[in-house]
């Protein structure tokens, strides 16, 4: 990527932290942030010794880092139990009666579990796993609805050193099969069913289908009763959670495991090819999720923290389970969808539980904007004090809406950039410290040496686009792709030796803030100028009629690539030629003629991954008029792709 990769977005709004937030902030100023950031990179022993020293290590480390690129070991020689840090540590500190998990089911049933109760649950289920013959190092696949037992199952694995691999409850039996095969799991933890958008998801039946070929190594299936629907139980293989639990006690010592003992494998689809099993280990992952949660979400004793992700994603692993519980915060978990039974469901929950910290995704924010403010403003959101965003670049206008309508103009927004591979948040503002600007994740967190490089490996100048990299290893980094070290090396470390390639393009502005421009593979190349998808999309979202947009390139004889945009409109807005022309003009005015779309195509919904990321690869094929190929198992809505394919040529 050379210097022809330019930014066309001009965003000048700046939001300094409020005096109120600043007065209570853990870090006192930008100077203090810079000092700590430098310390974390230049004297990591001092920094991590102090910060990770707040956790419970059964045996201290003898060496902080053993780095043989691209293989890292952190907290070498230490022994740690991750579950003990998330649960027992708080009970031992006299906070056993504090609520750990507040839970609301989609049908409206509720539960509240204290840290002492959580400890008992985790210990009992750890004993169930042991009784089923599961030992340290064994892989356990977890396929559960969003119920507290999903977190209990993860922590129980961690307690006995079993390696969990959570598969999102919305995935098919085919996905389960692939992941069972790749991970070699010997047990599955599931439920009879789960609730999603008013329907019952047949989780156990999907597991049965996945196991029906008889090729897996699975010996035991543990089944939680959630919906009470009829399911088949195979004698000798399948056991009920409650029945197995009745036979064990709540006494399960927390054995210390090596800091590099595998904690979990989480599969990430990647844009093409076979899903990658991202492997995370114990000490470094715990330290990373603990510290980021503490500083970025400013977790305090009286907070009610809500991350709206599913535990099946890395965001759920790091910021529903491990990070918040390691901090001893009260974490809310919600089983269902944001639009069931009505469009105000999230805000009803915020009001009911007096949520103080909310962490959600741009895809959700754009949906709320589309549905209309009236579903939000009828609830009392005054308990909120901090907002977070993750998953995609947040369009500046969506940021403004989040700030004003949800945050009442008073809540700092932390736009957090990170990946399944990074384990924890990497680039982010610190609340009460970093002045924010709509659309940028701002600056690197402690221990993160982020940079933007050109193709020759040189750092680019201000506002020039390039490849986002991390130049030093960090504690919560992935250790490998499970069973495929070669792919690990090639994918992440092969472009610039010894440097981690994130796969995103970015620029840094004059303040050093990082602006993610999109995935490298999605870059648009128009008349020799390379443009990030995010900026074109943000220009579209800044139009009053547009809810969401995706920009892709279509081969063009003259320009190399023509810009094609797919647009969804806000409720009540009609798609027509006049609006398409207006949108082309709008983009031209906002960011310049070079980015002016050649085609505007309207859609009811955009094709997305299950975690809400727009799949531009598919839209690119649609734009080029080709067939849809590749792995489509992670699509939210095949209908969306089909509708777009059918609507080819009819939109303008
Ligand atoms: C945590 C998570 C990682 C990819 C990442 C980037 C995009 C995530 C972002 C963001 C811009 C942010 N991404 N957060 N882009 N701003 N704040 O989402 O992990 O599912 O592995 O996706 O998501 O493209 O490379 P994962």
UniProtKB/TrEMBL annotation:
Residues 535-613 form the AMP-binding enzyme C-terminal domain. Keywords: Acetylation, ATP-binding, Ligase, Magnesium, Metal-binding, Nucleotide-binding. One of its GO terms (cellular component) is cytosol. CoA binds at residues 196-199, 315, 527. Its cofactor is Mg(2+). Mg(2+) binds at residues 541, 543, 546. It catalyses: acetate + ATP + CoA = acetyl-CoA + AMP + diphosphate. SUPFAM superfamilies: Acetyl-CoA synthetase-like. GO terms for biological process: acetyl-CoA biosynthetic process from acetate. One of its GO terms (molecular function) is ATP binding. The modification N6-acetyllysine is found at residue 613. ATP binds at residues 391-393, 415-420, 504, 519, 530. InterPro entries: Ac_CoA_lig (IPR011904), ACAS_N (IPR032387), AMP-bd_C (IPR025110), AMP-bd_C_sf (IPR045851), AMP-binding_CS (IPR020845), AMP-dep_synth/lig_dom (IPR000873), ANL_N_sf (IPR042099). Its EC number is 6.2.1.1. Pfam families: ACAS_N, AMP-binding, AMP-binding_C. Residues 93-474 form the AMP-dependent synthetase/ligase domain. CDD domains: ACS. Acetylated. Deacetylation by the SIR2-homolog deacetylase activates the enzyme. Residues 33-86 form the Acetyl-coenzyme A synthetase N-terminal domain. It is an enzyme of class 6 (ligase). Belongs to the ATP-dependent AMP-binding enzyme family. Catalyzes the conversion of acetate into acetyl-CoA (AcCoA), an essential intermediate at the junction of anabolic and catabolic pathways. AcsA undergoes a two-step reaction. In the first half reaction, AcsA combines acetate with ATP to form acetyl-adenylate (AcAMP) intermediate. In the second half reaction, it can then transfer the acetyl group from AcAMP to the sulfhydryl group of CoA, forming the product AcCoA. This is Acetyl-coenzyme A synthetase. The lineage of its organism: Bacteria, Pseudomonadati, Verrucomicrobiota, Verrucomicrobiia, Verrucomicrobiales. The gene is acsA.
């Amino acid at each position: 990527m050379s210097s022809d990769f330019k930014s066309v977005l001009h965003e000048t709004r700046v939001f300094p932290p409020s005096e109120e937030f600043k007065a209570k902030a853990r870090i006192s100023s930008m100077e203090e942030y810079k000092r700590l950031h430098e310390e974390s990179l230049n004297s990591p022993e001092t920094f991590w010794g102090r910060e990770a020293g707040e956790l419970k290590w059964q045996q201290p480390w003898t060496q902080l880092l053993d780095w043989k690129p691209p293989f890292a070991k952190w907290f070498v020689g230490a022994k740690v139990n991750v579950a003990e840090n998330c649960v027992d540590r708080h009970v031992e500190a006299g906070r056993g009666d504090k609520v750990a998990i507040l839970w609301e089911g989609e049908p409206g049933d509720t539960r509240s579990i204290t840290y002492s109760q959580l400890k008992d649950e985790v210990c009992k289920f750890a004993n169930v796993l042991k009784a089923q013959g599961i030992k340290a190092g064994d892989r356990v696949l977890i396929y559960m609805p969003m119920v507290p037992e999903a977190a209990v199952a993860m922590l129980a694995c961690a307690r006995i050193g079993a390696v969990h691999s959570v598969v999102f409850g919305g995935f098919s039996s085919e996905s389960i099969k692939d992941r069972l095969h790749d991970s070699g799991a010997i047990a599955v933890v599931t439920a009879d069913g789960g609730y999603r958008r008013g329907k019952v998801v047949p989780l156990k039946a999907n597991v049965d289908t996945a196991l029906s070929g008889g090729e897996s190594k699975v010996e035991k299936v543990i089944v939680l009763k959630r919906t009470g629907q009829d399911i088949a139980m195979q004698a000798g293989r399948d056991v009920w959670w409650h029945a197995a639990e009745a036979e064990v006690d709540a006494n399960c010592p927390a054995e210390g495991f090596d800091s590099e003992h595998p904690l979990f494998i989480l599969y990430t689809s990647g844009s093409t090819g076979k899903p990658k099993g991202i492997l995370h280990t114990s000490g470094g992952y715990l330290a990373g999720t603990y510290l980021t949660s503490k500083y970025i979400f400013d977790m305090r004793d009286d907070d009610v923290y809500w991350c709206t992700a599913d535990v099946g994603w890395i965001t759920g692993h790091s910021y529903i389970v491990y990070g918040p519980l390691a901090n001893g915060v009260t974490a809310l978990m919600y089983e269902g969808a944001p639009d069931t039974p009505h469009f105000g469901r999230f805000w009803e929950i915020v009001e009911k539980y007096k949520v103080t910290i909310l962490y959600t995704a741009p895809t959700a924010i754009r949906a709320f904007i589309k549905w209309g403010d009236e579903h939000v403003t009828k609830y009392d959101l005054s308990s909120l004090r901090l907002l977070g965003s993750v998953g995609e670049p947040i369009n500046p206008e969506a940021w403004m809406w989040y700030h004003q309508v949800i945050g009442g103009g008073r809540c700092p927004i932390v736009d957090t950039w990170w990946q399944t591979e990074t384990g924890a948040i990497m680039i982010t503002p610190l609340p009460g410290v970093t002045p924010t600007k709509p659309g940028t994740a701002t600056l690197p967190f402690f221990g993160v040496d982020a940079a933007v490089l050109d193709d020759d490996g040189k750092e680019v100048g201000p506002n020039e686009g390039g490849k986002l990299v991390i130049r030093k290893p960090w504690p919560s980094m992935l250790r490998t792709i499970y069973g495929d070290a070669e792919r690990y090396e090639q994918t992440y470390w092969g472009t610039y030796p010894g440097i981690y390639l994130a796969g995103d393009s970015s620029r840094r502005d004059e303040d050093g803030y990082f602006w993610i421009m999109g995935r490298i593979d999605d870059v648009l190349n128009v008349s020799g100028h390379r443009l990030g998808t995010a900026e074109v999309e943000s220009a579209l979202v800044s139009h009053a009629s547009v809810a969401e947009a995706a920009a892709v390139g279509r081969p063009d004889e003259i320009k190399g690539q023509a810009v094609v945009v797919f647009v969804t409109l806000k409720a009540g807005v009609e798609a027509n030629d006049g609006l398409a022309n207006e949108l082309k003009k709008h983009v031209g005015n906002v960011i310049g003629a070079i980015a002016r779309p050649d085609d505007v195509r309207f859609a009811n919904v955009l094709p997305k991954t299950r975690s809400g990321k727009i799949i531009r690869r598919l839209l690119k094929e649609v734009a080029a008029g080709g067939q849809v190929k590749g792995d489509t198992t992670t699509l939210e809505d095949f209908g969306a792709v089909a509708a777009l394919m059918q609507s080819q040529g009819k939109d303008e």
